[in-house]
Amino acid sequence: MSVKETNDPKIIAFCCNWCTYTGADLAGLNRSHYPENVHIVRVPCSGRVNPQFILRAFRNGCDGVMVCGCHPGDCHYSTGNYFTRRRFTLMKRLLEYNGIDPGRFHARWISGSEAGKFRDTAEEVTAMVRKLGPNTRYREYARREMSADE
Amino acid sequence: MKIKKDKFKDALASIAKEAKVFLPMKGVYASEYRVWDGAGEPFFERNTALPPKELLFPRSERMYEYDLNAGTVTEAAPDEKIVIAGIRPCDVRSVEHLDKVFLESEYTDVYYRARRENLTMIAYGCATPAPTCFCDSMDVVPTDAPGADVVMNDAGNSYVLTVNTPKGEHIRDLISSFLSEGKADDVPAVSCSLKVEKPDDLHKQLIARFDDPMWETLSDACLGCGCCSYICPTCYCFDIGRENRGKTGTAFRCWDSCMFSDYSRMAGGHNPRPTKKERLRNRYLHKLAYFPERYGTSLCVGCGRCIDKCPARLDITNVPDIIQGSESNG
Amino acid sequence: MNDNLAKMREAAKRALESGDVGYVIGWGATKFPDKTSPLFMRKPEDAERLVWNEYAIPGIAKYLLDDLYPDKPIGVFVRGCDSRAINRMMKDNRIKRENLRLLGIPCDGKDDERCTICRNRNPLVYDELLWDEAPTPEPKDRYFRANAVEAMSADGRYAYWSEVFDQCIRCYACRNICPACNCKECYVDMTATGFQGKQHSRSDNLIFGVTRAFHVGDRCIECGECERVCPMGLPIMGQTQKILKDINELVGDYESGVDAESENYLGVFDLDDKDEFM
Fold this sequence. Notes:
The complex is a heterotrimer.
Chain A: E1 11-16, H1 20-29, E2 38-43, H2 51-59, E3 64-69, H3 80-97, E4 105-109, H4 115-132
Parallel strand pairs in A: 1-2, 1-3, 3-4
Helix pairs in contact in A: 1-4
Chain B: E1 2-4, H1 8-16, E2 20-25, E3 32-35, H2 53-56, E4 60-67, E5 72-75, E6 82-87, H3 89-104, H4 110-117, E7 119-124, E8 150-155, E9 158-163, H5 166-174, E10 179-180, H6 202-208, H7 214-219, H8 227-231, E11 238-245, E12 248-255, H9 261-264, H10 276-295, H11 305-309, H12 318-328
Parallel strand pairs in B: 2-6, 6-7, 7-8
Antiparallel strand pairs in B: 1-9, 1-10, 2-3, 4-5, 4-12, 8-9, 11-12
Chain C: H1 2-18, E1 23-29, E2 36-41, E3 74-78, H2 80-91, E4 100-104, E5 128-129, H3 144-150, H4 154-166, H5 173-177, H6 202-216, H7 225-229, H8 237-251
Helix pairs in contact in C: 3-8, 4-6, 6-8
């Protein structure tokens, strides 16, 4: 799949298979509309999401990243999202410390029945990232003429 | 010819009109050959932390770009004129070695050639060798650089210039208004405090001792990082990779180091150099044995950077010492 | 100092003569008075080459990972920082206590910026203590680098770290010396996975810097070796200090490597952890 170079924000959402992905599915079944800027990557558990996924997404041209999983206590694997919580509480601070706008990274708990919350979150994050504009930080440009850093 | 020290920057400014001027300068964190912005002070007290090879063989270099939608491939053709003012004789020698590899062997490297042809080197005769310097043991004269286009030596309140090549004559013409007549007083001889004695057939002896237990003791403290290769002015290994986005992208090459495990790892996982012992042996032998065998000169120029910066304080001069020691012991 | 050196040589010699240990790791002289190199003593007479002075700074615990299945225990001199490194690697199941013979040497502090935040000059784990412990002086600001960077604006922080990592040559010395960076195989060396681009660009350098910090941040023993070994002199403790500072703010007093039992922060969880992700 090729990433189009447009000014429209591109947002990756890492969604846990059991809750958020199902929630997004339900949003579709309900015919509710959410911005097509949000691209879902299904992961078995939000605990699967490695901080490098986030850095890699920014590097390869995403303007915003979401990590979404079951509410604490509801994890399909009992404890996965407790680790997610610790990990990304730290990671969010570290990203901010390194100069990435906090509006570009979001972690949310969205259950399988919260189709509305998924839609609202997608809209909110897209609006926020659109306002921030294209991300240039941590970004590796595939071609020289697109490079801002060098 | 002489140039007054207070006219040095004016002279650089006239060169900067037609070429990018690099000077050894202190950075925020480490000294290196940096683009001269018109004001920066040169750093001549000791050699830079980073070698000048980056200017000819960048850390990461775009080789070509492709766009399969348009069916085009655009090759990079570096054409920037570069003048290094104040390159040390040891580093000049390192460029001569890189020339042997990239230009004078069977295959000519086009990217290197393009950069090399556009490069003019003004050497700065070294008056203050660091404690880790041993270039005079590696057949470099600290105050002279026959491979440079111009050689510049400190003579109190002025620099004495010697022009070696047509490129150097061009530099002389550019800065002629700042030059005054003056014969080089004899430049005082400079000698490094670190001396290395090596037998003439060092490379043969080293290869004969390929399985010697000395490699184990030499590599005991090695951390297996790539520091020595990256700050070495003559380490020239590289890796080629691609940055791909769908149907467009770039091929690049970047520095690589034989000290890394993935350098020699083959498809399927076998690694002929499984531990730091084999890797360090390879690096030392490349400098002191393989290169001399092939090109007739040691690849180590004695700049001392690896001794100074090695986190474990490994010392390449211990290798000839061991050989010399065992020779005298009979 | 000379007294202590004599005790160290004696201890190394005794251990090697008794045959209880295969070899002893300490510090040896180089050709330069202001540099010492890790020394591996295999024969009793090698102990004479041991040195102990203000330049005996290099961390030596990480070398234990080069020999995971030794025939005989490995002798190693341990200062406070080395002992925390050993605790860290034991907790991470990388080395076994029975393979170690720890010769404790309370450290007198070295003339190094990183040593000003030292909280444990005395070894926390050892088999024998070669001389008496002395109290560790009050450490300076534990987060001196992180505090300085936090005071900047977001753009300033990005500019700061860009300048730092533009200078990074990616030699991975910081990774190789770090006792918390003890994976059998590093993600950086697994080039086929594509996690780490090999090009020396600003983005890939920054990604390496942040990833390295995050991989070791909660297990960092604050020895400062990553900065000491950096050939470019980069202030990379600023990244790990930030992580430690956040952990301390989130859960209170937290330190790694002070014993070989405590779990590292990211290795466990608490049902009552702070939740910002409603």
